[in-house]
Amino acid sequence: MPSIFLTTPMVTVLVAGPVDINNSVFKNNTAVKGGGVYTLHLQATNNLIVNNSDGIHIYYGDEHMIVNNVFINNNNVDINITNSAIATIKNNYLDTNNIYGSHFKSSNIFMGVTLDFINEANNNYHLASSSDLIDAGTTDIDNFIFPSLDIDGNPRILGSRIDIGPYEFQN
Question: What is the reported pTM?
């Protein structure tokens, strides 16, 4: 699946069927619900979701997987799970106070972590060598296929583990 890089205010991605979103950037998007993504069935892996009216809104279904993503400044709503939807939210950089809903399993990192992008002000979200997101991701999920390339087309897992976010750190 091709990567998505949205850096200007646009309509949110609305999908009624199953969708896999990998190695993508959603930035500065606004919508009533799900400024980044609004969906029924989602597998989101290694994305950056930043400065949206909210990050991901899941409105129904189960077996949603949100893994190895970076959520920053999404109007205090990184993930909103409604209508008995069930999601596994694992190894993401996010503030767990910004997850809304009661049906989710969570294992995430936030406190005391250094993001350290190359040049965030100019939309360069490549990881700097001092970023704690390098080798901090996981591929330890049964029956889940992770991307073999990052958003730039570089191989994934250059170090000991997959990185968190759409860009794999390149030495």
Answer: 0.88
Query: Of residues 75 and 32, which shows the higher confidence score?
Result: 75
C-alpha–C-alpha distance, residues 17 and 46, integer Å:
20
Coil/strand/helix, residue 91: strand
Give tens-digit pLDDT for 142-158.
888 888 999 999 999 99
**Is residue 85's pLDDT more than 70?**
yes
Of 10, 98, 4, the residue nearest 45 (C-alpha): 4
For residues 161 and 38, give the distance between their C-alpha atoms in angstroms, rounded to a whole number. 29
The pair of structure tokens assigned to 125 is 């979200």
Positive or negative, the CA dihedral 40, 108, 153, 53 is positive
Q: For the chain, give every domain's residue range.
A: 5-108
Q: Could you tell me the CA-to-CA distances from 126 to 41, 58, 87 in Å, in that order?
A: 28, 27, 27
Tokens, residue 36: 């980044």
Q: Please give the Cα distance from 54 to 67 (Å, whole number).
A: 17
Residues 6+ apart with CB under 8 A from 75: 35, 52, 53, 54
Q: Who's near 111: CB < 8 A, 6+ residues apart?
A: none
What's the pLDDT tens digit per position in 56-65? 988 887 778 9
